[in-house]
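Give me the fold.
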Amino acid sequence: MNAFRSHREKLYNEMSELGDNQDNLQDKMKGAMESNNFCSSLLSQIEEWHKFPIEKTNQVRQQVVQRLDFKWIKLKRFLLELIH
């Protein structure tokens, strides 16, 4: 009977250790996934920071083009008046 109990205790301890290892692995995987989400979130924020200057530059470019178009129209009218 002692051999049976000893063997049973050994199996119980090994199963407990296996369960602990599984829990640790799950925790590590969860941490890695959360870290990946953090990295993904950080990369998304960096992309937004990158887009902001591009969008602002495009807005300024459009304003400049509109002003130049307006100035060109005024100049064209002025030159037409000089000719006539």
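The CA atoms of residues 41 and 47 lie 10 Å apart.
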